[in-house]
Protein 1
Amino acid sequence: MSDSTSKDWKPRTHAVHGGTRRSQYGEVSEAIFLTQGFVYDSAEAAAQRFQAAGEDEFIYARYGNPTVRMFEERIALLEGAEDGFATASGMAAVSGALSAMLKAGDRVVSARALFGSCLYVLEEILTRYGVEVEFVDGTDLEAWEAAITPDTTAVFFESISNPTLEVVDIAAVSKLAHAVGATVLVDNVFATPAFSNAIAQGADVVIYSATKHIDGQGRALGGIILGTRDFIRKTVEPYMKHTGGSMSPFTAWVMLKGLETLDLRVRVQAGSALALAEALTGHTALSRVIFPGHSSHAQHALVQTQMGGKGGTVLSLDLKGGQEAAFRFLNALTIPVISNNLGDAKSILTHPATTTHQRLPQDQKDILGITPGLVRMSVGIEDPDDLIADVLQALEKAG
């Protein structure tokens, strides 16, 4: 197999061609190697490969696969990382990255505003095995500075929180963490690979749920852990290949196809999200419109430097009438669908308080700003004028 990748290419070119391996047949679309294992020419060759596999040598699909490797190399090039390990889901990436590096007695400082499953991993699983976890307000640098002590092993946060869209200063928090030798892990899903190069801003490990923008069409679950070659191959790979959270070859092929159009899709989605935020700000049915790319957002200035002014593809709306108004609004929409995914070509709306974050106690929902009237909207690639018109008519019906 041959790989003609150039590291000098720009991101959009990497997203289409990076890491491509062509077989002797010269296929245009990447090949799917649907195989669990691989054949060796001799017993000696098998023994040698198990001792030290070469760059294009594979042992077992749980350890690695040519199609999966293409996806890992392509997204690593796009993100500016040395290497990556593809996982079965976004949460397999989050739990795998943390569990692979942590042991009893280690200490993690995390932003409080997280996706419900991320909170479960930190609060319920890691602490069960003796890892100390402290939560802080992710937007408060003084809180980070006070919590990140010399005994801190790792720092974890979502660069844009789910669902209230708080933006964490990657460079500032990374500087505080590195001063005490802590590893910085960033869940960068809402920022997307197109808008935020978290590694260049100081993150050591970047995690994506490929289920979201990378696939972009609601077809498959997947995730990726990105970092230095040593971290990926010496820390993550041994853990993942023995615990079984690796990505399937078919899923990797789906994600490769998604990467080809990622930049085009998310730029359209971000533009439509901003148009919606501008059209809805001040609406009498809403107590607030949250969108990082809008000038009213508390971290709008940070978004300009950290994301090049692009606020992502998700906005949140808080309806004054609480859950009843939110449900009437959701049920009155004709274009977006009600689901719990995001980053899709279709616009998707979610009621976090009763779905993705329903397990949180009310006091935590209150702290995070997850009100009964809050609705998260992942903006798709539909015509923005159609979306605005549909949202406005649904708000009118919601009262």
Note: The radius of gyration is 21 Å.
Protein 2
Amino acid sequence: MRRIEADISRRQMLGGMSAVVGMFAGFGLAPNEARAQGADRPILLTNLNYFDGHTLSLHRGADILIEDGRISAFLSTGQGPEDVEHIDCGGRTVIPGLIDTHWHTTLAAISQIAAMTQDIGFVHLMAGKEAGATLMRGFTTVRDVGGPAFGLQAAIDRGVTVGPRIFPAGAIISQTSGHGDFRLQNSLPMMPVDQADYATKAGVSTIADGVPDVLRRTREQLMKGASQIKITAGGGVASQYDPLESLQFTEDEMRAAVDAASDWGTYVCAHVYTSPGIRRCIAAGVKSIEHGQLADEDTVRMMADTGTWWSIQPFLADEDANRYSDPKAIAAQKEVAEGTKRAFDWADKHQVNWAFGTDILYGGGESQGRQLVKLAHFMSPLAALHRSTGAAGDLLALSGGRAPYEGRLGVIAEGALADLLVIDGDPETSLDWLSDTGNLRLIMKGGRIFKNNL
């Protein structure tokens, strides 16, 4: 697309972009007015403390210089250059932009019925609105692990609308009857002449059975621009047919997805809860386990020994949990909640590489910050913040050359992308300030300021 657009005149490009912006404006999704430094004018953040994303203490006595969308230097207090935009942080703390490593961009703002029945244009416009809200909650990057997020990612990256950086997986790859099979039973059996179901046509999920099918579907998502591949390796709480303990995809099928992703320099992540499913994933070369709250300790130890990443969500079956009416789903949700604390304990005990994610679905997006607050129930506030910044950035780096953005994320370090928050609150003692977006006094992504209430 970039090569094609290079051949289009500036007049045509501006006309087309104006039409797109006008369309988004009609739904309240026009780009927000955002302050930004000029192309030749750096920004200097002064009078601050900062959390670097990894070290579990705050740094003091330095100003942060931002140039060309990156953190270019740390300067002694009062020693910065004059020809910059000075921003006095008022003694507040600066932290890296937050990262949600398990997000569904197109499914967070609408009901399950709407996701499966409404016009896809409506679904995308609602996702665009939610993307702006996501950024205003301080989440400057999300790893999308299932859904048609490619168009929204392009619109955000081009400045058509506002939202976080998106690492897209594309359609969830599922076996027949798996966690990503959203068909109704009256559509079975599927015959070779049948058209694809709605979820497949919309790009929410795709069904693959056997090694050749898995290779094809994986390669299709890579062709669309997937930064990682998502498969379903076990049952789910929200899925209608498959039991939570079910195993999905044979090891050979999983390895086919892993091989195809590896050939493109990236990796596979897998939805799975139970020990047998996790062990099969590890044997096949899957690099990131999504959920996994029902793992036993030996399996957690295996994850640590093999360097397998773990994207854990604070599933506690509380007031912020996804809502279900099906008794089977409610029972499964309770079982997963009982395993959540154990998962955090064992991840820490065995030093597993793990990062924070939410998996918010069907209208619960406003709880995203509160979900991170819950981590501080199981560890220190800075340790919890590390899992949504520095550790999450390390997980994103598994995408290698398929990463959509060049530069480190989740850290405050020289050369890192300037995704930063200035907060009212002390992250050494509590994360409760995350429950109120008013405590996010400045939100910056790529050196552009999207909110400044300092």
Note: The chain has a mean pLDDT of 91.
Protein 3
Amino acid sequence: MDPIERFFEAGLKLSHLRLLTLFDSVGQIRLVAERLNLTQPAVSKQLADLEAGIGTPVLERVGNRLRFTAVGDVLLRHAREVFHQIERARYEVDALTSGLSGRIAVGAVPTVLPVFAPELVLELKKRAPHVNVSFFE
């Protein structure tokens, strides 16, 4: 197994990805450290661990500023996707555990369905937009 593959399987952590997204939003290691309640050396160490694991820099110094390398840009793009997926999972789990998601099956005679079904679905979707409703005659 090559070192990059090993790092992605065992060494890459969410904290590494969080560093990248925070650096992208605030632009300075000092501000990243403040947001994470860490020291600047601790943030720099995590960044160095990430770079050592993949074997290449993710940030480069340009004048007195830091910017993402091509590898850093790729990792940042995927880090955003990871956190987006985590947020979606949190939302879905919250919806399921609070009863605002799931499936409902409603059975009724054909003459009644056109009368109450449209209003029922509209009201239900307002309160629980992720509930799936099925009607059966």
Note: The first helix runs from residue 3 to 11.
